[in-house]
Amino acid sequence: MKQVVTFGEIMMRLSPPLNYRLSQASSLEITYGGGDANVAAALAYLGVPAAHAGCFPDNAVGRAAAQQFQHHGVDMRHCVFQGQRLGLYFLEVGASLRASRIVYDRYDSAFANLQPEWFNWDEIFSNAQLFHWTGITPAISATAAQATKEAIAAARRLGLTVSADVNYRRNLWQYGQRAQDVMPDLVAGCDLVVCTEGDAEDLFGIKAEAGAENSFVSMSQQLIRRFPQIQQVIATRRETQSASHERIKGIAFSGGQYHETEFFDINPVVDRIGGGDSFISGFIYGQLNYPTLQEALTFATAASALKHTIHGDINLVTAAEVEHIVAGNTSGRLLR
Q1: Which of the following is catalytic: 36, 75, 165, 277?
Q2: pLDDT tens, 169-193?
Q3: How far is CA 72 from CA 49, 52, 112, 317, in A?
Q4: What's the pTM value of the predicted model, to 2 decimals?
Q5: How far apart, in Å, are the Cα atoms of 145 and each of 40, 84, 183, 310?
């Protein structure tokens, strides 16, 4: 099987143990993650060959971050080691009525200072079938946006499928270009996108038509008319009961048809970071292994639900474990 390739920044995550607040913490747990790379690692656990391209500082911290993803089965040969700084983020995990909170410390990271010419996309994609990126990557810097654009162009030229989680993060766009000016050209090269109605309005000015029976369908139809390369639009619906209790279902629009799954109930939520990355990785796996979109969507949603039970950014589950949940085994009974 050919690889799925991802491109984006990996950061160090620092979090107090248990549900402590940062003001209480005397120690911080270290993990590593990034929206794009989390997809590659989750796919590797599902048995799909995956590679990641990125940029790390040329020091022990940068090498440790790359080695963590290599440990998870991701091919990291295409990463560049240049610069001085690995981006950080601090996560305070909430509970019950208290929401989780993230503080970013990623300014002037090695990834933000990458040069597009450091990445030979023809070589990187030489054994690839799909390229995945997120809207976080072009938000980091002008050079990261240019590298993303070149990667998409190369993927299209080489016949790869291109997927994206548009993932609009308003506060990241700080380098003088607006997401609304950059993202349309990038999304135009995609076959599959994760996009909610809110992201579609913020990024592309697309609103569900007044009186539409299904706002997601209305948005998806308009998105596909504007970007004809797009074949599938997917997303999740959340019913947040508390920081410790979520209900999620998957939704999709493809071939003029709307699909949705049943809700998966997650109580308690252990760690919701990476839930969206687990959803798209599960959907990619499902498209490669199941005959229908409905089966792929159900697998994706179950994979995302399982991620909410796992500490860290990465969905450390096998396909068999996800299929166990799909089959209705959600009691959490001890397996021997």
Answers
A1: 277
A2: 998 999 999 999 999 999 999 999 9
A3: 11, 12, 24, 11
A4: 0.96
A5: 20, 20, 9, 31
What sign has the CA pseudo-torsion 82, 83, 86, 87? negative
Beta bridge partner(s), residue 148: none
SS3 309: coil
Token pair in block for residue 261: 């799954």
> Do the beta carbons of residue 155 and residue 162 sit within 8 Å?
yes
The pair phi, psi for residue 196, each rounded to 5°, is: -95, 170
Sign of the torsion angle spanned by Cα atoms 58, 32, 110, 132: positive
The predicted-structure confidence for 208-264, as pLDDT tens digits, reads as follows: 998 899 999 999 999 999 999 999 999 999 999 999 999 999 999 999 999 999 999
> Both tokens of residue 75?
């091919």
Contact 308, 291 (CB under 8 A): no
Burial track 146-168 (b if 16+ CB lie within 10 A, e otherwise) = bbbbebbebbbeeebbbbbbbbb
CA–CA gap between residue 72 and residue 70 (Å, rounded): 5
Q: What is the dihedral of CA 280, 282, 284, 289, to 10 degrees?
A: -170
DSSP 138-204: HHH-HHHHHHHHHHHHHHHHTT-EEEEE----GGG--SS--HHHHHHHHHTT-SEEE--HHHHHHHH
User: Active-site residue 277, yes or no?
Assistant: yes
d(CA 9, CA 26): 28
CB count in 10 Å sphere of residue 228 = 8
- End-to-end C-alpha distance for the chain, whole angstroms: 32
Three-state DSSP at 249 gives strand
Q: What is the DSSP letter of 271?
A: -
The Cα 26–Cα 3 span in angstroms is: 41
Instruction: Identify how many contiguous H helices and E strands the chain contains and give both numbers.
Output: 11, 15
